[in-house]
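thread: overnight batch results

M.L. [08:02]
morning all. the overnight job finished for the chain we discussed friday. pasting input first so we're all looking at the same thing
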Amino acid sequence: MNILYFARIREHIGKSSEEITLPERVTTVADVIEHLETLGDNYKNAFAEPDLLRAAVNDEYVPLDYNVSNTDELALFPPMTGG
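M.L. [08:03]
and the structure it wrote out:
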């Protein structure tokens, strides 16, 4: 899976994207986030406020319970505001 990180999430993790292979137990966006949190404190900090997370799979906004696979592209970002 290709994961893209934006805004404060990218700042905490220290990179804008990465390729990972999902473990079999990881089937939803929320599962991906839980898995990423096991990779270190920088990931835990990036996802510390799950209510402020937004996700898109293959360029479509999705809820955190959306099913994903290793062939998907997942973008994770905080809510956007206009100005």
